[in-house]
Write a structure and sequence with these properties.
Elements (H helix, E strand, L loop, with lengths): L3 E2 L5 E2 L5 E4 L6 H31 L6 H28 L5 E3 H34 L4 H4 L2 H26 L9 E2 L6 H5 L7 H35 L3 H29 L8 H25 L2 H20 L1
Parallel strand pairs: 3-5
Antiparallel strand pairs: 1-2, 3-4
Helix pairs in contact: 1-2, 1-9, 1-10, 2-3, 2-9, 3-5, 3-7, 3-8, 5-7, 7-8, 8-9
């Protein structure tokens, strides 16, 4: 519901022009340090994920289902950070720190869409590893390009449904306690604090949908890796076992980081004790995890490292011939 802004920051249910994103507090020196850290991490995130997308696209040896999903994960991570961090950086040195009602709703929708997409996509990647390791003969048929494309499309559809429900329920609330969002982007917990009516339904839906997505995704991951572990232990080849452990270890690291932080915020009532704790946890999954994922998958993956080496050699040859 729209509301009007008064000088003291209180609102009445009439017409809302926008919100104020409070962001992180502290002195000017602290703000400058935060800006520098956020900027460096964001640039590394952009560079890392663009590199993964480019390498997987250009190297024919990486045109397999696993790397198709990894390329989509890099795209989602890149978009997830880009929806939040540039605006947060601009607000650090902004005097107004305002975001329009439509801008807040759009940011909220895109963030919910991308975060849910990553949660489901990580489960799809676990299923892909299960099929590749436990059913290698059926794998090329089961995980054909059309199936992979449908799985990614289905992931986005599930996430979009979640985002539509969350956005519509949140932004139909009457915001009349304040227009100051004690956060660095538009998210469910801080927005619910501004409502001047009961948010029990919103909280129930948020915990229900997010909890359902996380629990189902974790269930798929656990079952998949349970079968994978049994298969690995039966392997006689030490080198084959090491390669499988390396690939699956990278994925399990990414899964643990993302699901763990997501569950703290959205998967349980009263997950964080304060907005300050929420800001720290949110920074992890909007910036730190998208930055780490390309490093996790490249540093622990021989195929990706070899592809990067071939790409570098090809670039050197082009420069020498030029």
């Amino acid at each position: 519901m729209a509301t009007s802004v008064h000088r003291n920051g209180s609102l009445s249910a009439v017409s809302l022009q926008g919100f104020v994103l409070v962001g992180f507090g502290g002195s000017a020196e602290t703000q400058a340090l935060l800006f520098a850290v956020f900027l460096v991490l964001y640039l590394v995130t952009v560079l890392g994920n663009l590199t993964m997308i480019m390498v997987i696209t250009l190297d024919a040896r990486l045109h397999s289902p696993m790397y198709f999903f990894l390329k989509n994960l890099s795209f989602v991570d890149l978009c997830l950070s880009s929806v939040i961090i540039p605006n947060a950086l601009a607000n650090i040195f902004s005097s107004s720190k305002t975001i329009s009602f439509a801008g807040c709703a759009t940011q909220f929708f895109l963030f919910s869409l991308l975060a849910a997409t990553e949660a489901v996509l990580l489960a799809v990647m676990a299923y892909d590893r299960f099929m590749a390791i436990c059913s290698p003969l059926r794998y090329p048929v089961t995980m054909c390009p059309m199936t992979c494309a449908r799985l990614v499309l289905g992931t986005f559809c599930v996430a979009c449904l979640n985002s539509i429900v969350q956005t519509s329920l949140t932004f139909q609330l009457p915001f009349c306690s304040s227009n100051y969002i004690d956060y660095f982007f538009c998210d469910v917990p801080p927005l619910l604090q501004l409502a001047c009516t009961s948010t029990a339904t919103n909280e129930l839906v948020m915990f229900g949908i997010c909890g359902f997505i996380i629990v189902c995704a974790v269930f798929v991951v656990i079952i998949s890796y349970g079968y994978i572990t049994v298969t690995i232990l039966r392997m006689r080849s030490g080198s084959g076992r090491h390669k499988v452990f390396s690939t699956c270890g990278s994925h399990m690291t990414a899964v643990s980081l993302f699901y763990g932080t997501g569950f703290v915020i959205y998967g349980q009532p009263g997950g964080v004790a304060s907005m300050e704790q929420g800001k720290v946890v949110s920074t992890i999954y909007t910036l730190v995890i998208p930055m780490l994922n390309p490093l996790i998958y490249s540093l622990r993956n021989k195929d990706v490292k070899d592809a990067l080496r071939r790409l570098g050699q090809r670039h050197s040859l082009v420069k020498e011939s030029g």
